[in-house]
Amino acid sequence: MKLTINGKDEEISGLESITVIDLLTRREINPEMVSVEINDSILKKDEFTTSLLKEGDRVEFLYFMGGGI
Fold this sequence. Notes:
Blueprint: E1 2-5, E2 8-11, E3 18-19, H1 20-26, E4 35-38, E5 41-42, E6 52-53, E7 58-62
């Protein structure tokens, strides 16, 4: 399956579908520390386990960083 992840085309081999939580687990990303956007729609955290990615989806991982003086 081909996905675009954070602007880069990637091949997820051996799968016809994968959930968002499975993709986060494969990449060792803590689901509590990231927001996920699929095809310009931001998911709610409770949708990570039920949202299936499909061929050609555009996935963005959005990390929030604190800072200041």
